[in-house]
Amino acid sequence: MELIWNYFVEVLESMGAALRIPVSFVVIEFIGTFAFALSGIRLASAKHFDIFGAWIVGMATAVGGGTIRDLALGLQPFWMTNVSYSVCCAVAVVWVMAFRRYLVRQSNAWFLFDTIGLALFNVIGIEKTLNMGLPTWTAIMMGGVTGAAGGVIRDVLINEEPLIFRKEIYAMACVAGGVIYILGSRFGMGSNVNATLSILVVIAMRLLAVKYHWHLPVVKGEEDYM
User: Fold this and answer.
1) What is the mean pLDDT of each run of 10 residues along the chain (226 residues)?
2) Which residue among 34, 66, 111, 133 is least packed, with the fewest CB closer than 10 Å?
3) pTM reported for the whole predicted model
4) Quick one: which of 83, 149, 78 has its CA closest to 117?
């Protein structure tokens, strides 16, 4: 048992070194990958995609934001050197197939998985960018890209208006979580504490925005003034 545990820790440490994030953040990333994959596959199943199509949507949702982030940072996309992300998305397909009657009918399930993935990936993007020595404002932007871009790709693939472009608070929740993370760093808090606070802020902001219908000002077109 100890041998298995040591091997597991060694794998996490090697992945953390490759991804330029602490080991604890590797665990966060896998949870976020599974949550985002579930949100994409759940919507794909509602539109009657086949297994492969659902897996593609799940993968795009889970790694799309991180891929754009890594390309912007001049890095090789993280999932291309580790098959674990593909396997994680495949497990998510099996999960949705097993519990499809519950997940497809429950819109709250999609919202929950999407919100969790958004919050988790946001802190991953922030931490990875800061570890490269880039400015804090860049880290906040890359956190938002990591968290929100996968959802945009998902919505395009399933022919839906991207959630980030609607009135609902989405990407701004990532910005708020990023600010909290940076402030925590400035006050000397540990990365795990910062990550926890940032995740809670993003989740709370998303929940409150939906409950109380918070939204950003809408850009009006010419027809609104006629």
Assistant:
1) 63 61 73 88 89 95 94 92 88 88 65 85 92 94 94 92 77 93 90 89 91 79 60
2) 133
3) 0.84
4) 149
